Amino acid sequence: MNSYISALFKEKSTLFGVTASQTGMQIDISCHNLNFSNFWGGEWKSCWILDYETKKLNGTINVHIHFFEMGNIQFNLQKEFKNVAVKGVDAKSIVEALRKEETDVSLPATYLASSTKRAWKKCILKSQRRCSKECADRQQCFALNSNGLGLV
Fold this sequence. Notes:
This protein is α+β, with helices and mostly antiparallel strands. It contains 3 helices and 7 strands, in the order H-E-E-E-E-E-H-H-E-E. Strand 3 (40-51) and strand 4 form a beta hairpin. The protein starts with a helix and ends with a strand.
């Protein structure tokens, strides 16, 4: 887990815990990343439960990104995973499954959050004042579901 965390998350921003029982294992990952000089902060929380018998992972990922440079833009994502196959119950197999599922969520979430921020900033700059209700009404909200990105 240490190599997985250090490869995918910013240094000194992430904690993880692994709790094992006779029937399974729970893996929790929590990352808090703040960048006040660039007016943003982010949080990643994931919880995974592995069933030794079925070799399946079930889990949830929660992502919260907050931009506050010229207003208040927040991006929230929650994604649930059911019956993710794991090759074995060894550390390498578990980390491989986690890496695939979490990377599939983090890349679109990062792109979507940054594109939402750009659209909001463009709207603000165009009006040269805080975003008006009319401009804010034109914003589109996105969600990440099991089929990929979609409009809400």
